[in-house]
Amino acid sequence: MQRLTLTPLTLLLASCSGPLPRATSRDEQPPAAVMPGPHRGSSEPARLHRNAACVDCHEEAAAQWSASLHRAAFTDPDFAAAYAHEPTRFCRGCHAPEAAPEHESPGAAAELGVACVTCHVPQGAALPSDGVLAAMTITTGERSAASEAAPHPIVRDPAFTTTAACAACHDFDHPHAPGVPMQSTVREHQRSPAAGDGCVGCHMRDPPRGPVHHGFAASRDHERLRAALEIHALRPEPARILISLRPRAIGHAFPTGDMFRQVLVEADATDEQGDPLAGDQRILGKIYQDRLAGSSRGRVLLEDTRLLPGAEAVVELDLSGAEALPVHWRVVYQRIDQEGPGRPARPFGEVLLAAGVLPPTEVGPQP
Ligand code: HEC
Ligand code: HEC
Ligand code: HEC
Ligand code: HEC
Ligand code: HEC
Fold first, then answer.
1. What are the residues whose beta carbons fall under 8 Å from the beta carbon of 12, sequence distance 6 or more?
2. How far apart are CA 262 and CA 223, in angstroms?
């Protein structure tokens, strides 16, 4: 059995929140100490029934959530393939937070994924009976109206729109290698120009003050993914190709999240028969090495070549041998398989971010 290693940030957030407040009225409570996170405590079948009730009353949020990766956190085929290699309690804690993590086939509760109750009724939070956690983002008048209209108490906490609501699941260390981040989205966010905004501003509201959306669109929305980077290719010398990648409004590294994602930057040239003559490529991603020492398994991060938040990267490719030929270049976002140490990465999901052809003599920016 593995235990989740809390990052310094989550520990800090937990320790800042102080003793649990007592519920006194229906609205405007002092901060609830517990924010959403991986499974804590025991599984409660009653939470499934409560979730079904949320879905019945809040149709719009429910429709958006139903189509989201949060809803599919345990059932989506990419997770299922990875989980088949490593069916551990550790994985279930975050991908099936409403199920009892000790069961390997956790059933209906797991199929809910990250549910309404996971975020709005965090396990262990001191909420009044039937109470839900909510944000303070609407005006005081609207808040009172909503509280009057709601058939359940609403506990408003400003922290619910900060990274605190996402950090316990979106930032954590490798279970076998404390200190080696498995996902570090919040730590990356903290070092980004968007550090002052929460995750919600970009992932739940578009524009930032627009209505709330529960689809949590990200890498499966190909248009959004393409729009996230500004990409240009140049051929300053016949055999030298420069591809510049500039993140637009991305609040963390690119790619972020799951460790098995990368950006492939490549260029090649073929002869008249279509046979390859020259080619070069770079990977922007996290490169790990598995360390096997006695019974203790571990992972070392060898290199992190991802795009840093707010910084432009220029990738240089060598096309020696293709000086007189057109060069085809492309930038591809890839999800790669997780079959483990020593195996070559095999992409199983790809999105073409940009591509083009650089003619032999011309010098200058390309679309
Ligand atoms: C019987 C219908 C019903 C059920 C069940 C219900 N809600 Fe509500 N809820 C409402 C109504 C009505 C309001 C007030 C109007 C509004 O804001 O939509 C409300 C308000 C809210 C708000 C505050 C919105 C704001 O003003 O910021 C949140 C958050 C919320 N509900 C979440 C939930 C969650 C999560 C569940 C399940 C645990 C749930 N609700 C169950 C009807 C319901
Ligand atoms: C991953 C966490 C997460 C999940 C899952 C989630 N919510 Fe929310 N929800 C939030 C956050 C955070 C906000 C506040 C966003 C803001 O105000 O900027 C919010 C806002 C709301 C609101 C008030 C805003 C509005 O749209 O009226 C309602 C109601 C609500 N959620 C209901 C639900 C229901 C019902 C479900 C399940 C179908 C659900 N939520 C699932 C995190 C979540
Ligand atoms: C209980 C744990 C948990 C919490 C809390 C949580 N998430 Fe997630 N989130 C997940 C998991 C697990 C997935 C991956 C689902 C999958 O693809 O299998 C995910 C997926 C996502 C994705 C989609 C990533 C993609 O590649 O498309 C986004 C965006 C996201 N979460 C944002 C948020 C934000 C913003 C918050 C805070 C308001 C939040 N999450 C809170 C567990 C959580
Ligand atoms: C300034 C806007 C912005 C902020 C703030 C932001 N993100 Fe993102 N996020 C993006 C963009 C843009 C992408 C890449 C395009 C896409 O996948 O939608 C992205 C992608 C992701 C992905 C998918 C993985 C990938 O590389 O495609 C996850 C998961 C995610 N963000 C989680 C978070 C979390 C958690 C936070 C808060 C710590 C956060 N984001 C803050 C804009 C933002
Ligand atoms: C502390 C919480 C946490 C734990 C533990 C965890 N994950 Fe995740 N996982 C996430 C979050 C959050 C995301 C969404 C980020 C993203 O999509 O890049 C995610 C995304 C993924 C994805 C990408 C899914 C997709 O649809 O693209 C795979 C695959 C995955 N996890 C497998 C696993 C496996 C296997 C384990 C156990 C060894 C595990 N995870 C343990 C939080 C967790």
1. none
2. 18
The amino acid present at 172, given as its one-letter code, is F
CA 194 – CA 186 distance, rounded (Å): 11
Q: From the alpha carbon of 119, which atom of ligand 1 is closest? A: 35
Write the pLDDT tens digit of every residue in 14-55. Answer: 333 333 333 334 444 555 579 999 998 766 788 999 999 999
Of the two residues 292 and 209, the one the predictor is more confident about is 209
Flag whether pLDDT at 273 surpasses 70: yes
The type of residue at 213 is H
Q: Tell me if 349 CB under 6 Å of ligand 3.
A: no
Three-point CA angle 183, 31, 141, nearest 5°: 115
How many residues appear in the chain? 367
Rounded to two decimals, what is the model's pTM? 0.90
Region for residue 215 given its phi and psi (left: phi exceeds 0; alpha: psi -120 to 50; beta: otherwise): alpha
Indicate the residue type of 191.
R
Q: Distance from the CA of 84 to the center of ligand 5, in angstroms?
A: 13
